[in-house]
Amino acid sequence: MNVGKTSLLHRYMERRFQETVSTVGGAFYLKQWRSYNISIWDTAGREQFHGLGSMYCRGAAAIILTYDVNHLQSLIELEDRFLSLTDTASTDCLFAIVGNKIDLTDDAGGEDDAEDEPGKATGTCNSARAPKRVCLEDAMALYKKILKYRMLDEKEVPAAEKMCFETSAKTGYNVDYVFETLFDMVVPVILRQRAEGPSQTVDITHYKPAKQTQSRCCV
Amino acid sequence: MEARGGVGAGSAPAPEASGDPERPFRVASAQEPAGAPGSPEACGPPRADEELPGALAEPEKEAPTHLGVHELSGQTSLEKKDNKGSKDAGRAGKMPGTGDGSQRGELAAPGPRDEEDVTAEGWRSRRKHVFVLSEAGKPIYSRYGNEEALSATMGVMMALVSFIQSGDNAIRSIYSDDRTLVFLQQGPLVLVAVSRTPQSAAQLRCELLGVHAQIVSVLTRAGVARVFERQRSYDLRRLLAGSERILDSLLDGAEREPGFLLGAVRCLPLPAPFRDSLGALLQRATAPSLAFSILAAGRHLVTAAQERAVLEDCRLDPADLHLLLNLVGASSAFRAGEVWAPVCLPRFNPDGFFYAYVSYLGDNTDYAICLVLLSTDREAFHALAGCKRIVEEGLQALGASRVLAGGGVGLPSYGVSAVGTPDLRHFLYKPFDVPDNYRQLPQFTSPEMEGPYASECERQRLFDLYYHLHGRLHSPSRPLRLIYHVAEKETLLAWVTPKFELYACFNPLVTKSGAIHAVTKLLRWVKREEDRLFIRYPPKYSTAPGPARHGPNRTDSALENGL
Questions:
Q1: For A72, left (φ over 0), alpha (ψ -120 to 50), or beta?
Q2: Do B223 and A48 touch (CB under 8 A)?
Q3: Of residues A13, A18, A28, nearest to B338 (C-beta)
Q4: Starting from the edge strand earliest in sequence, which strands make up the sheet with B482-486, in order?
Q5: How far is Cα B515 from Cα B521, in angstroms, rounded to an integer?
Q6: How far apart are CA A83 and CA A48, in angstroms?
Q7: A137 within domain boundaries
Q8: B-chain residues within 8 Å CB-CB of A85?
């Protein structure tokens, strides 16, 4: 299952939506933002490329975890399969959780047999059964779990409300907002680090792997 | 060609009650091949590589004119009724895929790849179908149409394979009047081609091997084996999701790129000094763990360099290079980024991964030169990105855009008129008589398709003729060295010697002596131009023993090449 990481990045970089092919490995982009060069990794969701995950995340200043708001399973897999890939990220790495494909929610056009996984572990959802649309609250619950997993204090990092987004790469809804909110948060941190200690990188660079999910269909 | 006709005739004269619903099932599971009337081939020695045309053609004769997908899909419905097991297998394949399929439709680039109606006449009359399935009969890939819709048809294919297998034999091909079916088993995967093209079974088998190799390039052979060891009924599409496009483009390429047919790489024609300086540039832009450096333009090779120690193991194989360039061409979503991905080169080592760094060079799209660097180190991305910058700067310094863009008319190429023989319309030339270290990367050259072959359909026709002649030259039973073939609209000559392999196409009114004269002239021309047409001395470099990345390496390599 694809959640639309490449489309999301493509929308931001190229200002348009384009059908993409499944990402092989990862793709590295440089984005000129204000006077900074931001490095962005677009990673593959497919399981076979998870071996590379640690490389993308090493030294990352921010990580965007992406799920599909129409598939609860994609959010669940963020936790089950992708969270462990972020172990190599630095301790002050920011996490953002992005629910993409919001344009598909209203009429739920397309497949309606969303996984009726008993995903009740994570929180409060309006529609009790077979949720068609993943609630923002679920994403926030995941955010808090990530903090716990990384042993961070909730008070020292941005609040869940500020780090969970819903976007549509197709319409462009919220896409710039996600990236630029993160850049705004992350650039000062990097500048401060550079001022403090010997820099590890030449450029002001941070990596931001968008992570995601594949539906594990059981045979 | 003759063989095909003969076999078709052999299978035809056994009339049978047609339309018997029990028939396909019974044949596929119970009937003895030896019992097939009118097909003595089937009774032959049960060698594993024996062709079994009679035995298998026989069950199909409910449609006396031809056998093919039409009949196969006709059978499938029967198969469903008769064979519960196969039906279940089909279902099992379908269930997990439902979500997948709809999702893929969304993913795939515009084009009705998956929506094609597999029951329609248009689907049946495709020139060539290619299917990939697992040993459990689970569909993995179909060139046309959604493979899920074909799970029953694939079940039938698997039934044919297993039936022959149960007699300690292997099904290789089925011939009918107008179609050739080729079966190929590679580990836990079964590949099937159903073709109306003039390709021989051997050529189709090569193509299937290519499809298999492309799957291996994504997953490795060991990886494929592993998932099926764990679960025989595994749905491999879970791992291949998104790779269908790569397989599509490979098969498309096989239809229009002679490189697949000849097992050789086409080089971009370039002035030798320019190519040499590009090679030197690749030698300069190295990093530890770098094994191969390749500059390519589309499916044309510009130059390639190889690490010296790796070279001792193995020279880059043209088949691997085809796969790699196909992968690069088919999967670059947008060209701004730098890709880092594990890639397996099946001929080099089917069980191991390289890490491929892929980036297009130059800001403008005047010339789409692509740099591919293969490293053995998973973490080498940033080092290789550094190499790319060196190459990019070097290209600028060389004024590469001027040479490569050829004044805005696309990549450098040449027309057949350059040879100066009016009778000659087109040719493919693959040399063997080249310096030692170059022999291992087979190359070929051919002019643009012009004049009568400018249209897609005429080009296809010419290719079909080349395929036909190639099949005759390399026929396993009766190989030939020289063929002079008068076709309807042109005259062709195919010639293989220890020094070269040549296919030349002349206007239809050429005389034999005229053709010989033209070929002589062509050979002389190629000899004169070979520095421009081919990579004569592929560069090498060392990355293993310390950083030999500077000036000295260059001179060193020049000495090493020795010529």
A1: alpha
A2: yes
A3: A28
A4: B424-431, B500-506, B491-496, B482-486
A5: 10
A6: 16
A7: yes
A8: none
SS (H, E, C) B475-526: CCCCCCCEEEEECCCCEEEEEECCCEEEEEEECCCCCHHHHHHHHHHHHHHH
B residues 63-92 closer than 8 Å to A (CB): 92
C-beta atoms of A217 and B231 within 8 A: no
Region of B111 on the Ramachandran plot (φ > 0 left; ψ -120 to 50 alpha; else beta): left
CATH number assigned to the domain comprising residue A144: 3.40.50.300
A13 within some domain: yes
The structural domain count of chain A equals 1
Please tell me the distance in Å from A160's CA to the nearest CA on chain B: 30
Over its length of 563 residues, how does chain B's per-residue pLDDT go in tens digits? 333 333 333 333 333 333 333 333 322 232 333 333 333 333 333 343 434 433 333 333 333 333 333 333 333 333 333 333 333 333 333 333 333 333 333 333 334 566 788 888 889 889 999 999 999 889 999 999 888 888 889 999 999 999 999 999 999 999 998 999 999 999 999 999 999 999 999 999 999 999 999 999 988 999 999 999 999 989 888 888 778 888 999 999 888 889 999 999 999 999 999 999 999 999 999 999 999 999 998 888 999 998 888 777 677 888 999 999 998 887 665 566 888 988 999 998 999 889 999 998 866 555 578 899 999 998 899 999 999 999 999 988 888 877 776 545 567 788 898 898 999 999 999 988 655 554 568 899 999 988 889 899 999 999 999 999 999 999 989 999 999 999 999 999 999 998 899 999 999 999 999 999 999 999 999 999 989 999 887 788 887 654 433 333 333 332 222 22
Note whether ipTM > 0.90 here. Answer: no
B contact residues 300-329, partner A, Cβ 8 Å cutoff: 327
Distance, in angstroms, between B274 CA and closest chain A CA? 30
Structure tokens at B429: 């030339």
Residues of A in contact with B102 (CB under 8 A): 110-111
Structural domain contains residue A216: no
Report CA torsion sign: A31, A169, B338, B351.
positive
Q: Tell me whether B100 touches chain A (CB under 8 Å).
A: yes
CB-CB under 8 Å, A21 with B333: yes
Q: Residue A37: which domain range? A: 5-211
Q: Is B406 an interface residue toward A (CB < 8 Å)?
A: no
Chain B environment of A51 (Cβ under 8 Å)? 342, 378
Number of inter-chain CB pairs under 8 A, A vs B: 118
Give the nearest chain A residue to B93 (CA atoms).
Answer: A219
CB contact under 8 A, A110 and B106: yes
Which residues lie across from B340 on neighbouring strands? A26, B357
Which residues on B lie below 8 Å from A18 (Cβ)? 333-334
In a domain, A150, yes or no: yes
DSSP state of B111: S
Q: Domains of chain B (ranges plus CATH)?
A: 2-256 (3.30.450.70), 416-533 (3.30.450)
CA distance A205 to chain B (A): 12
Contacts of the segment A194-202: beta carbons below 8 A, 24+ positions apart: A200/A59, A201/A59
